[in-house]
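Standup notes
- DV: blocked on the single-chain target, sequence here:
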Amino acid sequence: MSTNLYPPLNLKVITPRLELHGATDELLAQLLPVVRGGVVAGQPYPFDDPMSLYEDNPVRERKWLQAIWRGRGNVHPESWRLYFVILLGEQAVGMQDLIGVNFDTCQTVTSFSWLAPSVRQQGLGREMRAAILHLAFEGFGAAEAASEAFFDNLASNRVSESMGYQPNGSDWATRRGEPAVLNRWRLKRDDWAPNRRSDIELIGAEECKAVLHIK
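- DV (later): unblocked, structure below
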């Protein structure tokens, strides 16, 4: 797909440590070896069902790509999903998604991310979240951001807490068919604003608003 025809593929969020680039097919191809090698290292399993990354290779790769391709075109005023490939230097190391939830009426978003096992425990999860929150609040005028993580996904829960999210109850979900408790978090714009960073750059956000039905 030509990036000139679809503005979300031109979108970039740049921080001092990493860059988020709209997930073009070329960038997704760079991530295929990571997906092929396996993103889920073992228990505790981090993702709720259904999740292509739990599938056996090569079904995993095919379902992962198909889900992203479907998501690109499934855009409505109330719901949309932007897919980003995380670049560390010139190396593709994971993904960060921003998901509009009732955005036309409530201006709310949530997020989803994963990193290659080789680059975990380096503080990149917090940097990725800071980048996507900057896009949501500064770029698109979101009012609130939500996040969910299983109770034993310590890394994700720590990131949410460190970014100023507040606990927002819990829920149940399955992972690989087994039920487990999800912690729910939310961050209001007024709580994000005092810690707004000045070193994050947005490229192409304005051009995406029409595609996403954002006024």
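- Follow-up: The chain has one domain: 7-208.
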